[in-house]
Specification:
With 138 residues, the protein is α+β, with helices and mostly antiparallel strands. The protein is built from three helices and seven strands. A five-stranded mixed β-barrel has the order 2-4-5-7-6. Helix 2 links the parallel strand 1 and strand 2. It starts with a helix and ends in an 11-residue tail after the last helix.
Length: 138
Amino acid sequence: MALNTGTQIGIGLAVIGAVAFLVFSSPDEGVLEYVYADKVVSSPGDFVDREFKVHGNVVEGSLSQDANDDTYHFVIEFKGKRLKVVYDNLLPDTFVEGGEVVLTGTLDDEAMVIRSTEMTAKCPSKYEEEEIAPTKRT
């Protein structure tokens, strides 16, 4: 059974309308931009007053804990650009200085500090190839 032209056009318009509604109704809701630390340092104005995810390597020797409020302070870097971090939560078990982290937070552009309460720390040992001792052949 074939549909007449009017019915086909009606169905097509309904589908296009539904797709347009989904695309334009809340494009940013629930989606956070994921950037590397060098991009934030290069153009901080792009990240003010909004939450985003930032990726970088923790600079060795930069970790300290504030005795007054138990926040952690450290520096992350990527491609030679450094960004200060204030982290207000427990450090993940996999957190190590020199390791990779992804932080969710907001940028205080005056102090050039990202304030974060959520972090994922990558575990480098999990992904490194294990060295296998050569076996003796007889």
